[in-house]
Amino acid sequence: MEIASKYNPSEVEDKWYAYWMDNGLFKSKPDGREPYTIVIPPPNVTGVLHMGHMLNNTIQDILIRRARMMGKNACWVPGTDHASIATEAKVVNKLASEGIKKTDLTRDEFLKHAWDWTHKHGGIILEQLKKLGASCDWDRTCFTMDEERSESVIDVFVDLYNKGKIYRGVRMVNWDPAAQTALSDEEVIYKEVHSKLYYLRYKVEGDDKYIVVATTRPETILGDTAVCINPNDERYTWLKGKKVIVPLVNRVIPIIEDDYVDIEFGTGCLKVTPAHDVNDYMLGEKFNLETIDIFNDNGTINDKVGMYVNMDRFDVRDQIEKDLIAADLMEKVEAYTNKVGFSERTNVVIEPKLSMQWFLKMEELAAPALKAVMEDNIVLHPAKFKNTYKYWLENIKDWCISRQLWWGHRIPAYYLPKGGYVVATTEEEALKLAREKSQDPNLKLSDLRQDEDVLDTWFSSWLWPISVFGNILDKNNEELKYYYPTSDLVTGPDILFFWVARMIIAGYEYKGEMPFKNVYLTGIVRDKLGRKMSKSLGNSPEPLELIKNFGADGVRMGMMLSASAGNDILFDEALCEQGRNFNNKIWNAFRLVKGWNVDETIAQPESSAIAIKWFEGKLSQTIDEVNDLFEKYRISEALMTVYKLFWDEFSSWYLEMIKPAYQQPIDKASYEATLNFFDSLLRLLHPFMPFITEELWQLITERELGQSIMVEQMPKAEAFSADFLASFESVKEVIANVRTIRLQKGIANKEELSLQIVGDHNADFDSVITKLCNLSSIEKVSEKDATAASFLVGTVEYAVPLGNNIDVEAELAKLNDELKYLKGFLKSVESKLSNERFVNNAPAAVVETERKKMNDALSKIKSIEENIQALSK
């Protein structure tokens, strides 16, 4: 079979991905094997592949391919998330570009546009994942708003409502004026902002005096209904029982007293705006203050106060500053840095706003989820995130689950004509309940009004590990019984609370057990300067372009070489280049081996037999290491271990040892052993580099249609001698030193040398040393040749007689320099060992290391002095 001179990733990748798909090799059905299940963190339906997806899905594919090769029934469920806020914003923008406003459409008309957009763009990211080699069971692709997932979401809402865990009420929420919806606390990102602190004058009613109140949000004076002082603040005892006038607004408001006020902050007087600050709201409740909501949903001022109507809140801030100064009601303005909440989705400043919303009581639900992680029933990798998880769950608040959007799962609450509401999974059920509640048998469906809001997107994705296998409340769901709990979850720490914690909560509430056993938390992909990748910085490479340039295997390897769990990845395209180079190394090594002529009549050389025995042991040792690293989720290290085995041990050592002389044949036993090693190495590498490994595995020998490396068993470790492997490391050191002497002395490889040994030496490996060093002889001597260049391996001295290949004067100068350095080094070690305090207090292993350094230095000094003496004769 002709093997191309160069590896062409694009040809190989498309060919084998189609082969895997055509032969149904990614599919999983319940059977007698142990299941291994991963559910994909569903990317937003609005999304396209970015570097974070590349990393996350590479790790998932490595885990799923490895599990498949370990004999497990591997099932990787793909899917996408409907992403209420992001998708609705995309659709609104698309309609705006066509001159259509959302407000001009009915809900159903808008949803038709949203579904059209989703059908057009929704599958893009999943198609892109195929280019990466993702071995998902694509027949199982789910969408959080498809019929089956939607059914589970509505069933769960109704179930939790009936359990008394979901309630409706007016609460202070985080309002996103751009998306015009409430957000949960976790969807608010706090950023440091350089703003201003405004000191405003509030005149005391019936008095010439005024007090000064500091605020960062002067526009909210329109909703002020009190000023609060601390009862222990002696500066303001004169204010007790008085009233003040809100500047510009001229509303008379009371002075109230509460030790909530920080005497040290600002002026010690706090303006109270119950409708637009969560702490002010609590004061308002306590003192029964009027609540004046001054904002429209889009962040403009409403007409309740009759000032600045329909102006944007930030334009009002600028204008009100000018108006306060003009009215002599501004004491001063200072530069001020504070933390301001921004919407995670739209990046606009959120407004605290009183709003009627739906909430889920979380404290009781969260208890088993906290216990599961703290007791390591569910293991976080790395464990450093346990503290973050613990803090969030111990301080959990009720979850605001309603959103003022049209795209999403509509809340199944139905309002009755004369007040009250019912919650039901279907309209028919709602009508039945409504008739019972109202005691009106003539009530029609058209008399009921369904709640306009939709559920928070996370309210569907928190059910994901269960809902992907069918209806969550179906007790006879065989697929769910087989695949749940899933095995591993791979995700980012940024959604540890948003998603991971909530899935654990849902798992215990609905299945009575964990949704997954391990959570692998990736780091953030940054550029090589440590900056977060973003379009605005122009430092985020296009993933498909990287695959085009370096091949999918090269990119996968480049990502993984720098990706240890939980640590940020400093991504550099040079890593992809390293990945591509490794592909080429594998390809060229395979071409070399397949290019050898095999002669069945020749005997196997002793050096080849030793090489095979050594590599068998090295392979088994590495398999044990890799298994251990995977158990610890040190996937990047596992790749590096296999990489080194192939590059350093197999290519640089093993192939050199068994390689036949130029244009000479190889014996059959060595050739077959080498192909078997290649087969094992390709299987070890396959989870990391699926395409090149499939291509070469298919070329090792003739395969039947449907056969694939991806369903072959991972190689197993055989018993090996650690002593034999350790001895071979000494052999490698001898060979490396002889090669160094050749290089330093400019002696050609084709010129034979001899090797002298002073001391004990294991002759078992002499055939390997002879071959790789091109030696004419290896002999034990009591005294080495005067012209020899020598070196130590352990305590054994080796010498290469140089004869005419030596410049005596240059060699003596070099040896004297080395002697001077070693004597200085010995002096520093002896000084340390003569220090009683060091010897008595340092760990025994450290003292022993210093003694070894001293003995090695003494041995080298003796050898160099003998060399100098011999050359000086």
Structural class assignment: alpha/beta
The count of β-strands is 31
Count of DSSP-assigned helices: 27
- Amount of helix: 40-55%
Contiguous low-pLDDT stretches (5 residues minimum) are none
Quick one: biggest sheet?
7 strands, mixed
Instruction: Name the beta content range.
Output: 15-25%
Distance between the termini: 63 Å
What value does the Rg take, in angstroms?
A: 37 Å
- Described by the principal axes of the CA atoms, the overall outline is elongated
List the helices and strands and how they pair.
Blueprint: H1 9-22, E1 35-39, H2 51-69, E2 73-77, E3 79-80, H3 84-97, H4 107-121, H5 124-132, E4 142-143, H6 147-162, E5 166-176, E6 181-183, E7 188-204, E8 210-215, E9 226-229, E10 243-245, E11 252-257, E12 269-272, H7 278-287, H8 313-326, E13 330-343, E14 351-360, H9 363-374, E15 379-381, H10 386-394, E16 399-400, E17 402-403, E18 413-415, E19 421-423, H11 427-438, E20 449-450, E21 454-455, H12 458-461, H13 464-467, H14 478-483, E22 488-491, H15 496-510, E23 518-521, E24 525-527, H16 543-550, H17 552-560, E25 569-571, H18 573-594, E26 598-599, H19 606-631, H20 635-658, E27 666-667, H21 668-685, H22 690-700, H23 722-745, E28 753-758, H24 766-773, E29 775-780, E30 789-793, E31 796-800, H25 808-833, H26 836-841, H27 844-872
Parallel strand pairs: 1-2, 3-4, 9-11, 15-23, 22-23, 24-25, 26-27, 28-29
Antiparallel strand pairs: 5-6, 5-14, 7-8, 7-10, 7-13, 9-12, 10-11, 14-16, 17-21, 18-19, 18-20, 28-31, 30-31
Helix pairs in contact: 1-22, 3-4, 9-10, 9-15, 16-17, 17-18, 18-20, 19-20, 19-21, 19-23, 19-24, 20-21, 21-22, 23-24, 25-27
